[in-house]
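ugh ok fine here u go
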Amino acid sequence: MPGAQEAGDHWGNPAFRTKRRIFTVLRPDEMRANFNFTPDEQAAYCQADSKSFFPVEGGWGKMGWTTVDLRKVSKKMLTNAINSAWYNSAPPKLREQYREEKGL
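structure:
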C-alpha cells in the first residue's frame, strides 16, 4: 500500500502503519490480524462474514478495531479489509491519489 511501512513491534506483534497511524496488527501465533475500521465498516464486515470478522474486545472494538481469523477469511475479503484499514489511516493526500488511480 502506498506510504505503508512496517511499524515494528506493537505489543509483541508486527504492525503496519501510514504516517498517521497503525492500520493493521498481525497476530501470527493466533493466525489473526486486527484492522482499524470505522464502526460502520466494522458492522458491515462482521455482518458479511461473521465467521471471520469480529470486534476486538473492549473499548478498541467500540472504536472499530476488528479481528480477522486468517484461517477462515477469503482472499477477496482480506484484500478488501487491508484496503479499507489502510485508507482509514492514510493521509488525505494519499487518499486523494488512491481515489484518482481507482477512478473513484
